[in-house]
């Protein structure tokens, strides 16, 4: 089942919905011409279609496995990775000083999404490397940068993130890994890390681990954590991989999906590491990397959604079943209203999630280019929505994809179930979607709601502008944003964060729902109120947007009823 | 991770929510005393806890497989099946004339649900046999009944349903299997059937297939289909399994879950079969069996939900992580509001789905006992809701169970993901949930909405009665039922069924939402407005019930916008 890169959709959203032009109008991104953007999308798209997508099933059927302590990757993954590296797609956003192209995050987001749609388990590898590049660019010494960055950017080396330990998951501060100074400027890293995505592979010259550990004088909790770069092979004086470091892959997890991505338990036995950033300041460096990684994971969800949609749409157009219930039907199941409802939902949700992610990327780019605080606030505010709604959409759309297939959806050989199994983890890793929602309702409202209100103001301004020409689309969006504002004010009124957290997930989702309406309306406006995007907007605004009311009722119910029920009350 | 049968919940719902007493007050079910009910629940519950649940992981880790044409079942399944058969749990509802206990469907529903929670893949086996028993009781000749029923009821033999063919899924009428009269009263059955759950096993003496096929003079479509019983081994003059019939298992499907249940491609090569019911009247017999099987599949969803809830609740109470955000917290993740939100949602949804299924079962029992048309209509009306909402709840609750586990939820060894993978098929088989919703909005409204309005009247009457004492619970339920009535009237106003079908799934869900509110309110009333069930009702009514408004907006949007978008509009 082929994958077709949705290049036109990115281009449309760039041009008419999120305003890539304001990014490329800055000095920082002035080299990103329309021609370059177009070439990037089509070249990356072609690689995804031709090279990566044929590997998708391999990853599932022939999982990465451990062989004498070495990870053996799925058939074809080495060639797929080579295509990514040679095309320069590991990190098109990296600093040109180290071999990158310095392109906007907006383009990176689109390219990452296409690679995710084509082969999610392999794409997770460069996504991890991208995060490492970013952390090193911002926090590493020049000596480290000079050794690692060119090789990571070129794809010769890969990067990983090592946060989690058995007792330290969402609570990173509970980690026990130790770092002892060796007296020569290096550190001896000791401890065990779990859930390390792509902790090893058999196609890169070196695998470089960013590891959180505690120095002997590090305080308990997150404030005593430092960040280290710990390579599989220690670079020699020329930067070439030298002797093997004292680290190993202990085992791989057996997961629900994403079998092509080796999830490793990593053991560090006094492995040599180099400090990145300041001592005890590791969390700050980690957050640099995590924020954009969160957008990246949101993009994984959207990619999976796109893949599942295309897969289901193709099946629905070829599966003959029953008499056509409509005149001039095709005789396939796409003639059925309920199948159309599912497919149209998949399309409308994918577009909404994609627009949110790209709007977040534009805000990051504007922050990078201008340093303006309002763009930084916008980027920070949209990141948890992009992550949680993008991944929830990936799961929901893949689930609909299974349903469109009927009985065949449950049979693995069709590949529909793989999308669902693969994407399921994206709601969990890089901060669960519950953690995203807590971040959203606590940290991201610490400005007193300024960023949130500013965004709602924009939503209302666009809706007001469209009211005369597109009343049946603009009015519901305007009304929904007013209801959302009431929910926001309720949140801001809660000084006890537990009250917010009790409704954090539905609140984030309600915000995403309204944003989705906003971006669908933007598409209809751009189309002049007539065309397929306007029809899709009507579907979304009429059928999906109304969900926000129930979500806001849920969001603002407070925590008291939750704690009034004891664990015993919830038992059988 | 142990499973505890929720016996108290069934008992409470029997006594205070769905009124089992009216069933046991009939002559037909007068022997179902409170003591017997209690004994059935506790005995079946104990078997599920002690014998079946320990097999759950085996089914996943060691799937049923085909060995020289014979299905080899998962380790322990033979012993588990023996416990079901020897305990008399294959079919407690079967006619005592053939060895059954003649107990109400309400009890069967509870027992089936417990077995599903404990080990879904094995429970599917007796569920299929139950359907076969019912079809034979209603449609077979005495000669067939005498041979088959005692052996099916005792569990010596198993039963299967053979409807689907590669080109005939939801569209059963497209089937091509043939039946040719042999001249001796038997028929030669030829054709291939797919997706045959438990098409073979290595623990029963015989496997009896109910097969839909077309006689030489059968018309095309569903009206030319006849039903046959086709045993693996042909019974000799004493009814003992004799020579092997001309049928075989060609292959097993590789599925997303439910690995312990062999899903077979069955080949019939002139196999000897006996007609069940009249010629060309097979669909009627099949529907007898399918209706109750639909309720049974709904119960599978609810069982999986209960299992996933217990599993997640146990994990949440033992997983330490982070500082407790509340005073006097336990230090485990259950202290966190978002984890509580998930667990409480799981509990509230499971209760709602269970009450709906048991209300459906009570209606079936009243229909059986009294023959009253209004009970028959109630049973028919509730069946698609019980099936679709029960299975959707199973999926949603299992999905939340994965999320509660965080990263561990994606690792197969915890077992959380298995609930989700296993239960996913229940929204597909026995009529997809889309088919259920179409049945609900078309056939089940053919009475002009009488059954629907009668049910809404009851919801409103209870809410009105509770308004004085429990206004904050009763009022929202009353309001929601009024909104639901408006949606119903919209549906009834559409003579073009495609208009209904475009919103059928959200309409069914909205109806279930309101029914859930009704049954939660009933629990609060029974508790006198104070206690854990009242608190759970408050959670549901405040947070989940409001979803109905968005669903009804979706349900009543009509089909035009769906068909205004072409397949090309949905493509990349």
UniProtKB/TrEMBL annotation, chains A, B:
First-level EC class = oxidoreductase
E.C. no: 1.3.99.41
Reaction(s) this enzyme catalyzes, per UniProt? 3-(methylsulfanyl)propanoyl-CoA + oxidized [electron-transfer flavoprotein] + H(+) = 3-(methylsulfanyl)acryloyl-CoA + reduced [electron-transfer flavoprotein]
- Domain named Acetyl-CoA dehydrogenase-like C-terminal: residues: 455-565
Q: Which cofactor does it need?
A: FAD
Domain (Acyl-CoA dehydrogenase/oxidase C-terminal) ranges? 281-442
Limits of the Acyl-CoA dehydrogenase/oxidase N-terminal domain: 78-156
What Gene Ontology molecular-function terms does this entry list? Answer: flavin adenine dinucleotide binding; oxidoreductase activity, acting on the CH-CH group of donors
Q: Does the keyword Cell inner membrane apply?
A: no
Enumerate the spans annotated as Acyl-CoA oxidase/dehydrogenase middle domain. Answer: 161-269
What the entry lists under InterPro entries is as follows: Acyl-CoA_dh-like_C_dom, Acyl-CoA_Oxase/DH_mid-dom, Acyl-CoA_Oxase/DH_mid-dom_sf, AcylCo_DH-like_C, AcylCo_DH/oxidase_C, AcylCoA_DH/ox_N, AcylCoA_DH/ox_N_sf, AcylCoA_DH/oxidase_NM_dom_sf
Query: Per UniProt, which keywords does this protein have?
Result: FAD, Flavoprotein, Oxidoreductase
Q: Would I find Oxidoreductase among this entry's keywords? A: yes
The function of this protein is: Involved in the assimilation of dimethylsulphoniopropionate (DMSP), an important compound in the fixation of carbon in marine phytoplankton, by mediating the conversion of 3-(methylthio)propanoyl-CoA (MMPA-CoA) to 3-(methylthio)acryloyl-CoA (MTA-CoA).
Family as reported in the entry's similarity comment: Belongs to the acyl-CoA dehydrogenase family.
Q: What is this protein called?
A: 3-methylmercaptopropionyl-CoA dehydrogenase
Species name for this entry?
Answer: Roseovarius pacificus
